[in-house]
Amino acid sequence: MSAPMIAWMPIVNRLYRYMTNANSLSLQPIHIPSVTIHDVETAAEHRPRTLKHLLKANHANYAVFFNHLRFHNHMPHILGSAYLMGATPDQLHHIYDEESKQLVPWEDSPAEIAKSDWKDFLGDKRYQRAYVDFFEDQLALEHAYRWRMVADEFLFEGKTPLINCVISGLGHPLIHLGYAYEFSSREVGMEALAATASSYNYLHKYLDNKEYTRAGTFSSTSPLEILHKIAQDDRFDGIFKQPAGDNFEILLKDHEDLILEYWNAWVLKDPVKQFQESQEAAVALLVATVQPGTHAYDFFLVHILTTSHAVRILLPMVPEKFHLNLVRQWWLLTVGVYIAQLRPKIEDDLIGRPDMSGKHWNYVEDKAVNSPWATDAHYVKGLRAIKEAAMTWGDVHEWYLTAAVRFADDFRGWTGFGPHDVN
C-alpha cells in the first residue's frame, strides 16, 4: 500500500466507525419486560381510588410549573412512588396536603393553541395551561379519550419528534411521562405532554441531528468507566467554583466538544446489558459519591437515578426506533450533570455494608412512607427507583438493597445547590 493511501487510513476508519455507530444506534432495540401497570382509573379498591382522586385533584388545581416557572410539580411522582411503596390512603392524603403547600393554581396562557400552530409555542412555559387544554382537546375530539394515542401522535411523529427532547428541565418531562404510563393516567399523560412541549429546547438537536453523533478518541461499553475517566480529566478543573443547576447549560454552551467527546464514548454493543449497567451507574452516582458521615446526597444526581427509572418504565412502551435515543438522552444528561456537580469521586466501597440486620425491602418501603422524609418527593422516588432496578435485574448479592438501606438510613437532606437553585 502506498504512503499516501496509508495516511488516509485513520480517516477512513473513523468514517467507517461513525457510519457503523450511527446505523446501530438507529436499529438496536432494548427489549426488557414491562413493569406492572397500575390502572388506577378502573380499580375498585379504596387505596388505588384514593390515588386516582388525588391525581385528578392535582391536575385540576395546580400548574405543572411554579416559582417563576422554574420549579416542577412533583405531585404525581411522590404520590405514585409512595403508593407503590405501600402508602395507605391516609398517608397519600397527607402527602398531597404537604406537597400542595408549595404549588400554585393554574393561570391562563397568553393565547390558546390550535392544531395549526401548536409547534409555534414550543419551549414557552407561559403556555403550559394552553398546552394542557390543547392536548385534552385532541384527547376528546380526535382520540376518543385514549390518551396513549395522543402521546403516539405528538411524541413520536414528525422529523423532530418531541420524544427526542424529554431531558430538558433536568429530565422532569421524562419522569412525568414515566408515571403517566405506569399508572395509565390520562391526567398525568396530558401534563407530561404539556411539560414536554413547554420545556422543549436546544437539547433536541443532539438526537435529531446526526452530525452530533460521531466517533471520538476513545470508547467504552461501561458508563462507570467513562464517568471515572471524566473524574480524572483535568480539562474540567476550574470550570466551575461550585455545583449548580445552571452549570449544565453553561457546559453545553462553552464546552460542547468536551461533553460530546464523552457522550459519544459510550458504545452500546449489547444494549440490554449496557442499560443494566447504566442503572447501576445511576445508583452509584447517588449513593457511592457520599463520604461516610457527610450525608451529602446531591439533589441533581438523584435526578440521574429517577430519569433512569423513567427510561426503564418507558422502554417497553415506546416504538423500538426510539429506544437508543431515549437511553442516549439520559446519558447526555448524566455526563452534563456529573460535570456540573464537580465530578464527585464514585467509590463502590462507599455503599459499604450498613447495618443490614433484619433489613429487607419491606424495611426500605417502611422508611419511604413512615420516615421523617416521607413527604420529600426525591427521597421517596429515589428509594422506589433503586427497588425497581433490583426487581428488573435481580439482586443476588443484595447490592441494590444495600444501596437503598444506606440511602434510607443515612439521608438528612439534599446538597449540591447553587445560589440560584433554591430561591
Describe this protein with a few key phrases:
mainly alpha; two-stranded antiparallel sheet; 18 helices; about 0% strand; globular; disordered N terminus
Characterize this entry briefly.
The chain is 54% helix and 2% strand.
Can you describe this structure?
With 423 residues, the protein is mostly helical. The protein has 18 helices and 4 strands. It starts with a helix and ends in an 8-residue tail after the last strand.
Shape: globular
Radius of gyration: 22 Å
- Would you tell me the overall average pLDDT? 93
Count of distinct strands: 4
User: So what's the oligomer here?
Assistant: single chain
Estimate percent helicity. 40-55%
How would the blueprint of this fold be written?
Layout: H1 3-27, H2 46-61, E1 65-66, E2 71-72, H3 75-84, H4 89-99, H5 128-141, H6 147-156, H7 172-182, H8 186-199, H9 205-208, H10 223-231, H11 247-254, H12 256-263, H13 271-287, E3 297-298, H14 299-314, H15 323-340, H16 361-370, H17 377-393, H18 399-410, E4 414-415
Parallel strand pairs: 3-4
Antiparallel strand pairs: 1-2
